[in-house]
Specification:
Elements lengths: L13 H6 L25 H30 L1 H4 L6 H32 L2 H20 L4 H4 L2 H29 L7 H30 L3 H5 L1 H5 L1 H12 L6 H9 L6 H8 L1 H31 L4 H29 L1 H23 L4 H28 L7 H18 L1 H9 L6 H21 L10
Helix pairs in contact: 2-4, 2-5, 2-7, 2-8, 2-11, 2-14, 4-5, 4-7, 4-18, 4-19, 5-7, 5-11, 7-8, 7-18, 8-15, 8-17, 14-15, 14-16, 14-17, 14-18, 14-19, 14-20, 15-16, 15-17, 16-17, 16-20
Main location: membrane
Subcellular location: Cell membrane
Keywords: Cell membrane, Membrane, Transmembrane, Transmembrane helix, Transport
Length: 464
Amino acid sequence: MTLPHAPERDELQPDDAVAAGSPDASPATPSSPSPSPATGSLNTRQMRRILGSSFLGSAIEYYDFMLYATAASLVFDKVFFANLGPGFALFASFATLAVGYIARPLGGIVFGHFGDRVGRKKVLVLSMMIMGAGTIAIGLLPTTAQVGMAAPVALVVLRVIQGIAVGGEWGGAALMAIEHAPQERRGFAAAFANAGGPAGAVLGTLALSLFAAVSGSGFLVWGWRIPFLLSAVLIVVGLVIRLQVSETPSFRRLEAAGARRRIPLLDVLRTSPRALLIGLVATTAFYVCQAMTTVWGVSLAVGSGADKNGVLNIKAVAAVLTLVVCFYSARLSDRIGRRTVLGGAAVLGIVLAWPIIALMNNGTLWGFAIAVILGNGVVQGFLYGPIAAFVSEQFPSRNRYTGASLSYQMASMLGAGFTPMIVTGLMLPAWGGLWLVALFWVLILAAAFVAVRLAPEGTRQRID
């Protein structure tokens, strides 16, 4: 039997039609005998294992990645950049945070290439091992007072390693869930990969808060290191579970049809530039919400007089709410469409931008609590739930790992990586202030709303 050749630009398969921007594309039956698409319930032994693996793997990697973000707000400016003065030390600390986000698109390209070429599962195992090694090394890093400038340089290098690893994690975890799930439950299934992010943030925040309380005055000496070193245990658990899941039906079809691209990145740039841009702009919105409330907002609240441990505990509670809202909004998007949910969340964020920022700045725990619940729990939660399915549905199977990862990770670089520096910079000049920060947030959310409305609705489309 002769296997069908890989489709070219003028041979759009059903999923290619979505990627090309046609909302009315009609699904067609795959022409080669291959594994049938997932149907039925998510409540099977195989699907439970797949969804658990996606959730736990993402949670572990984002525990590592977001632990750094919290430490950048509270620790690194004092341990690695203390000689720069308070304002500029915090700016430098946020700059190292941004370096990790800058590296994420590179991780998306590298891991996406191999994910589209050799399989989703294999690269997920590798990304987790790399992330664990980088995080443990940060926990063992000597301070600037001990080894001079070698310490912040090593910190930047290790942050780059973290960024590359997590850049490959999200796409694989999301695709493992989406490509195994029944069509009518794709959004909810993909939310398990997304929900790993706030779950990891909860673990990281609670770990740092716990050891801040336990270590007391020794927190800046040794207490902050323990949560980084605990990553070793989590990585082992995650690898055991991840090694038990099977490759996705979509990738097995690509293998059966011989339709894998030699260089998936070039294929994405040639056939799906519009999908890439839409995914980038839409995803940037929730990353800005995350950075505004859980990174810059923490620093603003503590600097305004709120208790540090109380702020960290409230942040953890809000992340739990983000998890709940994430699953709810993902399931809602399966019923009424991704564009409707994402567009509504962007409008809500525009309305609440100024009140949230004002509450974070009032110097009280109750003010920060309301702000982070609204900004992180509600607005980000509604943006976060459907985004994995929304972005992934814009790309065909043959380059989905690369395309979805690149748009998502570029958004993480622009949204989460640069936002703390941008808003800190907006506060430094005499003409700056909170109103400029609020305007920045509103403009980002407005751009996301436009991008979502211009995108094709992929909820009812077959992705194979």
